[in-house]
Amino acid sequence: MIDPGLRGRCVLVTGANNPLGIGAATAMAFARLGARVYLHYHRTVDGVGTALYRAQQAKSCDEVLDAIRSGGTAADACEADFTDPDTVPALFDRAERTMGRVDVLVNNAAAWRSDTFVPERGATRNPYLELFSDAAEPLSAASTMAQFAVNAIAAALLIRAFARRCVARDARWGRVINISTAGSDCFPSEVSYGASKYALESITRSAAHELGQFGITINALALGPVQTGWITPELEQALLPTIPLGRIGAPSDVADVIVFLASEQARWITGQKIFVSGGHRM
Predict the structure, then answer these.
(1) Which CATH number fits the domain that encloses residue 120?
(2) Quick one: which H or E segment has residue 253?
């Protein structure tokens, strides 16, 4: 039997309020292995995506916490808006007061808007996007900054806060898993989102290089289409031919890889971008 060495560890998962989401699935996967979990969330009501997705994103973490606690695992949560950088150290302080030292950080929280360089709204369309959202908005400073604030800057500050705490207590062990997208290197009609995730991948490699000396591994997952409430039946049919394994991803598909990268079995893996996409991107 393989022992992942996660029992008793404390895991901080960001963006975990959607019960159908990757953050929730990840938190529950760690809990099943005996880890304590602290959940971050930020409710959004900006009208992006399907009605189901909007409803899930507008929830607090109560539903996810109840599911975890029902299995006898210690868990807690707090809400924080990562567009304010001061929330990052406060989040770690609250997590450590409640759950003890944080051993694993999962940067799953994300901001998303569809934007484009094409000047006129609707002048160009992404055939996939139009199945579940309006045409991309012309790119603006606001759309770019809002997505970089959460997807890149907050993630970097979270890694910094995590590393400082690990080094201060001479932990010699730590895990960071960042969630990116398979389209980060070129994402027409989702320009700022793709660019911010590409920045996150660069942050991943730099942090892995610098923090390896302290026993901290840092990796990124580049995700294909995962059903967290945003994929309509029409969009699923359009996407299936692009996925060699023949199905849309489930949050548990991602959670299992995250748990692996946090485990002792992944102790010599760092600075990597791993496609978790059913072959959607290779």
Answers:
(1) 3.40.50.720
(2) helix 251-262
